[in-house]
Amino acid sequence: MSAAGEKLAIALGMLVLATSCTTKFHTSTQTSPSANVTEVTNSQTVAAVTIDGSSTVYPITQAIAKQFQAESQDQTQVKVDISGTSGGFEKFCAGKTDINNASRPILSAEMEVCNKNGVRFIELPVAFDALTIAVNPQNTWAKDITTTELKKMWEPDAQKKITKWNQVRASWPDRPLNLYGAGNKSGTFDYFTEAIVGKVGASRMDYTASEDDQVLVDGISKDPNALGYFGFAYLEENQNKLKALPVDSGKGAVVPSRETVEKIQYQPLSRPLFIYVNAQSAQKKRAIKDFVDFYIQKAPTTVASVGYVPLPEEGYHLDKVHFTRGKVGTVFEGEAEVNLTIGELLRKQAKF
Predict the structure, then answer these.
(1) CA 20 to 30 Å from 152, out of 16, 171, 234, 328?
(2) How confident is the model at residue 206 (pLDDT cuts 50, 70, 90)?
């Protein structure tokens, strides 16, 4: 499509949205009752952008928030918290936050809560992750691991039964197997259990759990008998404290990396990462619109700098078009999708 054609399409999209009461963005500073606004002493109003959710997406959003605040001309404050994807959606669908970081798509039950509370959302993929299996650097015996072995470790039947390394692979030593993983409010927990065990939420529960990936990193780095899983950016940030295990899903062991994600080799542990934007907040609070525009612009370089896999240019272009048009809803029909590739994600977004 020519540049003129694209502008016309966007203009028409905006007209349709305006007449159908679908979200349209304004420059108005009007705020919703749930919006956070701070009055300062000189009578100027400083808007606060409130963000919660996934610790996996946190490094991207936090880095962009710092850039945005440094360049902001109106002292806009951006507050980024961590409570896990599911915990974040609880707040987001209650209208308590403007943006939710998510390491999986929004689920049907969460969509129902959002709908009940009148919260309409814009789904924006921002990166791909290589969900990483890590051990302590003092672990000299584990050189790789299969998805079958991971299932044997993590399935519900393993609880209080699979407690030593040699129970997983006979050549591994008779040492305690100490597991560290995502808490059940985490999108990483949802994705890992579906990809490895075969059912969302199916997991042994006798392990050290946290919605904060840094807590898991710290635990594994101090425990020679540990194994855990978390987002790839936390490996990149802590390479001197951790050792990643190549994962074999039946076609040979593959290390987590940008290259293996892009070449569709690191499966089934490659997954998209998202932000979800409250459409009403973006309409009523100029700060939200400005921040999300800035986020989409900075995402390609920031995603790479914190250790994740950027989307192709087309992906961020689609984000910009969907956000500008106020395109609410999801392309995932309320389910997390295992083995999704970057190309498949882009095709979904292009049809949206």
Answers:
(1) 234
(2) very high
The DSSP letter of residue 330 is -
Q: Which amino acid is at 150?
A: L
Q: The tokens of 224 are what?
A: 């020679």
What would the two tokens of residue 32 be?
């919703």
Q: How far apart are CA 60 and CA 102, in angstroms?
A: 11
**Same fold for the domain at 3-128+272-351 and the one at 132-255?**
yes
User: Domain spans of the chain?
Assistant: 3-128+272-351, 132-255
The CATH class of 132-255 is alpha beta
d(CA 227, CA 97): 34
Residue 333 makes CB contacts below 8 A (sequence gap 6+) with 108
**What is the per-residue pLDDT for 288?**
96
Q: CA 91, CA 239: separation in Å to the nearest integer?
A: 33
Specify the length of the chain in residues.
352
Count of CB atoms situated within 10 Å of the CB of 30: 10
The stretches of 135-186 forming alpha helices (DSSP H) are 147-154
Q: List all residues 6 or more positions away from 37 whose beta carbon is below 8 Å from its beta carbon.
A: 31, 45, 46, 47, 48
Q: Would strands 178-182 and 208-210 be described as parallel, antiparallel, or unpaired? A: parallel
Please give the backbone phi and psi of residue 80, each rounded to the nearest 5 degrees, phi first.
-115, 120
Q: Give domain 3-128+272-351's CATH superfamily.
A: Periplasmic binding protein-like II (3.40.190.10)
Q: What is the DSSP string of 312-351?
A: PHHHHHHHHHHHHHT--B-SSTT---TT--HHHHHHHHHH
Q: Over pLDDT 90: what percentage of the chain?
A: 83
Per-residue pLDDT, 274: 98
* Backbone phi and psi for residue 251, each to the nearest 5 degrees, phi listed first: -125, 20
**H helices within 20-146, ranges in order?**
58-71, 85-92, 108-116
Given a contact cutoff of 8 angstroms between Cβ atoms, the answer to whether 54 and 85 are in contact is: yes
Residues in contact with 196: Cβ distance below 8 Å, sequence separation at least 6, in sequence order: 147, 150, 151, 154, 268
40 pLDDT band, cuts 50/70/90, is very low
Does the pLDDT value for residue 3 go beyond 60? no
pLDDT of residue 21: 35
Is the omega angle on the peptide bond into residue 268 within 30 degrees of 0, that is, cis? yes
Listed residue (88, 86, 84, 182) closest to 131, CA to CA:
182
